[in-house]
Amino acid sequence: MMTARKFLPTAFLAMLLHTGCVSTTTLVEEKLDLGTGVTVTHATAPIMLYRDNSAYAAHARDYVYLGPVEINRMGEYSYFLWLGIWSTISDAARSYQRDGFESITLYADGEPLQLELVGWTLESIGVSEPIYVKPVASAADAYYRVTIDQIRLIANAREIELHTGTSPARVYLMWDRQGSAHASLREFLDHSLYGATALHRP
Question: Which CATH number fits domain 22-196: 3.30.1490, 2.60.34, 1.20.950, 2.60.40?
């Protein structure tokens, strides 16, 4: 027989699903973070950037996935950009993976967006459960605070580049055919608190 201690969380989750506190579309996911009580919304299709790294090995590439995150703390909204950083190079040769990501510059159709690292962990943005699925298990997660207007610039950009803070900068270019990622970003904006206004602002 199920004890009261086990029954209550199950009933609570069922209630959340029934009332729409946990919802998913093909482009955006919204869920309650049970460890902190905040509501987390994110795009389901991140943008993919890449950098050829043949200096280490033939056909080697470094990758960065990026996607927006909205944190709702009882009506107080915060926005972050998640980066999933990984490489095709073996673990032993990837000690530099996080180098330069403490400060990055994103170029959205040539418009520079300078972003500072908030942290490498979920705790740094105040959540307890994974948001984006890592492209590979060894990928590093990085989080940057952004505004909704900066997310709008990224969503509307046809070309996106990422420059790390290293000298010389490592430059990541946008992978071809990112239609689903752009659609997911736009849906995220429409879904967000200020999204409809931000997306159509001149």
Answer: 2.60.40
